[in-house]
Amino acid sequence: MNEIGTLAEKSLHAGIKAWYGRSTDQFEVQLDGFIIDIVRGEQLIEIQTRHFGAMKRKLSRLLEHHPVLLLHPIAQEKWIVRETAVGQLISRRKSPKKGQALDLFSELMRIPHLLPHPNLVVGALLTRQEEVWRDDGQGSWRRKGWSLHDHRLLEVIGLHTFATPADLLKLLPTDLPQPFTNKQLARLTKIPPHLAQRITYTLTRCDVVEQVGKEARSNLYQVLVSEKW
User: Fold this and answer.
1) 73-132 per-position pLDDT tens digit
2) Strands 43-47 and 34-40
């Protein structure tokens, strides 16, 4: 198939495929028992908007014989759109939340054992998106029946790629003390403590960071490189 297939595909996934795809690519190709989003020569390109854990088996199989680029969108800017049950616009406002490349670790923590594979490259796509909610009565009572209908790609702001676990260290602040705690990492990067924990969890299992002791009740971590990243 040489045209971009979007049947039963969410808007964000389809939008990224259209943005990244080239006219010479193949789309929705069946290979090794799986459907591949984009095939570009020997490279397989997979777009995963969330749930990296669900891709463990697929990635493990594909990486045995193919170079894979795994693209993940992160909403650097997001607008909340509210619509009626039939899609008529009610309101649109900008969300105060701003995503960043470090948010990639919320998904990488699900596949740390695959990150050192020489055939895997991970890409963080910083985007502008719309998050679409509909008043269709299908949502939970906490949301008063509103349900999350779709995510729409407005623009791709930038792409950061990581070919090795050591490349991920570029996302850490260069003034991070050695050793460091999750609390220090969270403070310097201005991220929630739970995200700092996901970062150190992932990097320790990729053998680019190690736990070297404790400071009071906090674990101490050390970056395993000879020079500042």
Assistant:
1) 999 999 999 999 999 999 999 999 999 999 999 999 999 999 999 999 999 999 999 999
2) antiparallel
| Closest residue by Cα to residue 106 from 79, 73, 144, 137 | 73
Residue 184 in tokens: 């220090």
Helix and strand numbers, DSSP H then E, in the chain: 5, 9
Distance (Å, whole) CA 76 – CA 97: 8
CB 180 within 8 A of CB 221: yes
Coil, helix or strand at residue 69? strand
Alpha-carbon span 141 to 120, nearest angstrom: 42
Tokens of 33: 């028992």
Q: Which residue has the tokens 């070297």?
A: 212
Which long-range contacts link 183-188 to residues 24+ away (Cβ below 8 Å)?
183/218
Phi, psi angles (nearest 5°) of residue 186? -65, -40
Over the range 37-74, which residues count as b (16 or more CB within 10 Å of their CB) and which as e? bbbeeeebbbbbbeebeebeebbeebbeeebbbbbbbb
**Predicted pLDDT at 140:** 85
Distance CA 207, CA 187 (A): 23
The predicted model scores a pTM of 0.91
